[in-house]
Each structure stands twice: as structure tokens, then as C-alpha cells.
Amino acid sequence: CLCLFLFALQGATIRRDEATGEIFVARVIHGGLADRSGLLHAGDRLVEVNGHPVFGLEPEQIIQILAHCHGTIMFKVVPMTERPVNNQTMLYVRVMVDYSPEQDPTIPCVDAGVAFSKGDVLEIVDQTDALWWQAKKLPSTSACAGLIPSTNFLKRKQREMLWFQAYQPHTCLKASLRLSRRPGTQIAGTPHCPTNCCWDALETPYEEVVRYLRHPNDTHRVIALVGPSGVGVNELRKRLIEMNPQVYMGAVPHTTRPSRSHEESGREYHFISRELFENMAYNNRFVDYGEYRGHLYGTSMDAIKTVQDSGKICIIDIEPHAILSVRTHELRAYVIYIKPPVAECMRQTRKKSQITTNYYTSRYFKDEEYQEMEEVSKKIESQYCQFFDFVIVNNILQDARDQLLTAVKRAQEEPQWVPAAWIRPSAQN
Ligand SMILES: Nc1ncnc2c1ncn2[C@@H]1O[C@H](COP(=O)(O)OP(=O)(O)OP(=O)(O)O)[C@@H](O)[C@H]1O
């Protein structure tokens, strides 16, 4: 068995070979003192610390020696004969799970661990070790990296955790959680869970990402708005488009419901037969679809592409489970989460707001609907926050619209972290 611990100040960990009693440098923390000195390397054999021979000592005894050292500390080291060639390339990942070194009894040194939450971007600087990689959480001002579990190790930990905890089957957050009022795009119970709708964080805890800036000749990134029903997704989308219809446009949805006298196919909706709709759904032509009051509604890839090909920026609102359908090389969606403020604030800002209960009738919000929105929001966030590129709290409508405008511009004009697979189809996810 190998004992690992950290030379806290020097930025290295050591291990004792239990068979021989020899002490070796296990790893050098990237950017730490030992690394910057260039004198200590993983695999070097430690012989003395300030004149004290360390052979056969327990790691705790070496810590004691170090604790009593003042000023310059001298290490006598036998360098390993064959240094591994450092062929590490920098890797950036977006994390799909939460991790806390404090909760992890297997970490060699808690102080050297990097805590991260879903959606954080990490720069992985060293993957030499099979169990513990070295990484920095971005944005980082520190030159020094810390320890994170390797992909395989993290997967193993997660499986073990699931094994020990009562297994909670993953539930897709479907529209049944919604208040289901959005005329035309309501989806009262998505009929199926498309195979790609749930990201398997267990299989891919780290998603490789790259910095991407849209080339002026590329089509615009699709802007996908997500939020609990009633939060104002539709209102914000409408307001943005009204501000500049030459630049922003929605995708015309498909429906199987009959058209009304004032409606024109291709303008409000594409009115199609159920047979054709089902055929399109079968062939994955919809990014999001479902049934409402006996009729099918959906947003098709082709409708989005039509907007993109016209040179405009396509703004769509989707159910959370459809995020993965738009996070593709083709659409390169920028996902904006519209979050409700706390119920108390909504009571103030929504006093005069009406919600449409069906095509013709409207009414004021009920108090319990604010609570429901808050609860649904928490569920959506816990399951999908790792995919949000931007979050807007929709309290004062005008402010939220301004923030949306800023976010949409940022998506098109500033570099963003996107899945590497969008840029390099060979990249592993
Ligand atoms: N910040 C806000 N302040 C006041 N009223 C708002 C605000 N945001 C939205 N509203 C109002 O709340 C109502 C519901 O908004 P909207 O229809 O956009 O919800 P939604 O998120 O699209 O939900 P659904 O899918 O159920 O339609 C509308 O009357 C809208 O004008």
C-alpha cells in the first residue's frame, strides 16, 4: 500500500513504497513551488530533508521534520533515471457533476483538491496519474493547479455512490411540470423521451470544450431560451424580435391543429397532417415536440435552418429536455436560462400581468403559481444548469430584455466555451 500526502508548501506529494521503505515524489503540483524550481520530479527518490535521512520513516514523521524546518529547506534527492517525456496537451472540460474534496476520503490531500460544480470549466494540465489529474478552475488567477479525480476514477466514484445510496432513477423534466399555458407551443406531456434527451453524467463527467468565436461567414448561433412555464420566456422572445425584426426571428412551428381563418400556413404555423408530423418526428426532424389538447406541436430543424439561411438570428424557446437536441454542430445553440425571481418579487412585478389559459381567455397569476414556478425552476436548474451559457433573472421586464440583448450579442460576437465535438467531430465526449 502506498501512502500519499502533500508537502503543503513545496507543492508536491510523496509516497512510501511499503515493500522497500523508500520515499518517492508521487507528483509535483503544476505551477507550485517545486514545479517552478524545476528541481523536483515525480518518481525522484527522497533521501534527506535538511540532513535528516528519511528512509523507512512514516510519512507523518517526515511531515514533522518539515514542520520544524525554518528558512531554507534542503532536499537530497536521487533523480529518477528516465524522465517521462511530457507530451501532455492542454485540455479544457466542462464538468457535468459536482465534486467536493472535503467529501472525498480518497483524496491524497484535501488542501490540494479543486472543488467544482456542474457547468464549471476546468483547464486540465496533467493527466499522467491514472487516478488524480491536475487542473485549474477557470477563470483562474493562480499559477498553481490542484487535484481532481480522473475521468475513470470519477465515474467509479459515482457508480459506488449510486450503489450505496438508494438508486434514484433519472426522471426527464417534462412539460407535465409546466403550467402548460403557452399557446401554440404547449406540450402537455412529451410523448417520448428521445434517446439523447438525458445527458449521461455518469458516462461523461467531463465534456471536452474549446473556445469558439463565430466566424462572420458562419451562420448565427441559435439562441435557445429555457425556463419554467409562466416565467416570461415567450414575452422576452417576442420583445427581442420586436426590437429588431431585421435581425431576430423565431422559427415557425409545425402543428396538426386546423388553421384558423386569419392564419396562413408558413406564417403562424406550418399546418400539416398528423401522419406527416409523426413521420417527421420519427426521422428526428424536430428539436422539440409534444401534444397539447389533442394536437401535435413542434419546432423543426428545417424551420430553424430557414431562419439561419436568411442571415437572421433564430430565437427559439424549448423545453429543458430538448437542450441536447440543439447542442449540436449544426445549430451551435447558446442556451439562456430564464429564471424566476423569488415569489415575493414576482408578486410585485406580475401584479398586472395576465396569463393566457387557452387561446381566448386570460387571467391573473395565482399565488401558488409563483411557488410552483420557483419549485420547477429549482428542478430544472439541478438537472440542466451545466448546459446554461447565460442566466437571466426575469424580475423587471425591461432589465431582463436588456440582459437578453447583451447575451445574444455576446453569443455571436465573443469567444465562448463550446463542446469540442462541434468543432472537431473526432473529439471524445
Ligand atoms: N418580468 C415580468 N414582469 C411582469 N410580467 C411579466 C414579466 N415577464 C413575463 N411577464 C408576463 O407574464 C405572463 C407569462 O409570460 P409568458 O407567456 O412569456 O410565459 P412563458 O414563460 O412563455 O410561459 P408559457 O409557456 O406558459 O406561456 C405574460 O403576461 C407576460 O407578459
Automatic annotation (TrEMBL):
This is Membrane protein, palmitoylated 4-like. Residues 11-81 form the PDZ domain. Keywords: SH3 domain. Residues 88-158 form the SH3 domain. The keyword Protein biosynthesis does not apply. Belongs to the MAGUK family. SMART domains: GuKc, PDZ, SH3. Pfam families: Guanylate_kin (PF00625), PDZ (PF00595). The gene is mpp4b. Residues 220-409 form the Guanylate kinase-like domain. Signal peptide: none annotated. It comes from the Eukaryota.
